[in-house]
Amino acid sequence: MSFIDLAKNRYSCRKYNGESVSSEKLQAVLEAGRISPTAINAQPIVVKILKSEESLAKIRGITRMAYDAPVVLMVCYDLDKCYRAEKYGDDFNSGVMDASIVTTSMMMQATDLGLATLWARGFNAAEIEKAFDFPANLKLACLLDIGYADPEEGGPSPRHPVRKTMAEFAQEI
Ligand SMILES: Cc1cc2nc3c(=O)[nH]c(=O)nc-3n(C[C@H](O)[C@H](O)[C@H](O)COP(=O)(O)O)c2cc1C
């Protein structure tokens, strides 16, 4: 499948069919994240894998954004290792941006393997960091839910194909 077809194939899945994800597929997804670029190659990203009944119950007890996915990846960044643009008089730190490209790579690799995914950030990150005993420097950027789509209820939402026109999206200046 070409990259553009893969990108068009991906959608947010909010209902999974109960089938587990093989360790080979999970490793391939994680590898796509591991080799992703990060600012100055600082590699501040750490992924916490939730797939045991206990871990999944714990995250589902805090946020409904884990849905019923058999694997939930917590994409985290180490604040002490992020690139900072201080020398340019800018308070930017690369944590969320680095986490985003890592998550995108893992999401697209999962899609290529026939898995369904959901990127989620609708939760109180501090609450989750506390519940999972994160050290102060480790911040949760987002969750990536992974599994197999339920054939009846796991399809794309009606809003999935709604996108800006190209003219609204990109303009030459
Ligand atoms: C940064 C980000 C945060 C998101 N957070 C959530 C979330 O908390 N819960 C949820 O159900 N979907 C979440 N989504 C999924 C978006 O709602 C979804 O990508 C968007 O509606 C477009 O639909 P599609 O992915 O099917 O194309 C998030 C997506 C992104 C990129």
What does this 3D model show about the protein?
The protein is α+β, with helices and mostly antiparallel strands and 173 residues long. It has helices at residues 3-9, 23-34, 53-62, 95-112, 125-131, 166-169, and strands spanning 45-50, 71-78, 116-120, 138-147. It has one domain (3-150): NADH Oxidase (3-Layer(aba) Sandwich). The protein has 6 helices and 4 strands; from the N terminus they run ααβαβαβαβα. The two termini are 33 Å apart. The mean pLDDT is 98. Bound molecules: flavin mononucleotide. The site of flavin mononucleotide has 13 residues, from β3. The site of flavin mononucleotide (FMN) has 13 residues, from β3.
Quick description:
It is built from 6 helices and 4 strands. With 173 residues, the protein is an alpha+beta fold. The longest helix has 18 residues.
CATH architecture: 3-Layer(aba) Sandwich
Kindly identify the CATH topology: NADH Oxidase
Radius of gyration: 17 Å
Domain count:
1
Number of helices: 6
> Biggest sheet: strands side by side, in what order?
1-2-4-3
What's the β-strand tally? 4
Instruction: Estimate percent helicity.
Output: 25-40%
Structural class, please?
Answer: alpha+beta
Shape: globular
N-end to C-end Cα span: 33 Å
User: What pattern of helices and strands is seen along the backbone?
Assistant: HHEHEHEHEH
β-strand amount: 15-25%
Query: Which CATH C-level class is it?
Result: Alpha Beta
Bound molecules: flavin mononucleotide
CATH superfamily: NADH Oxidase
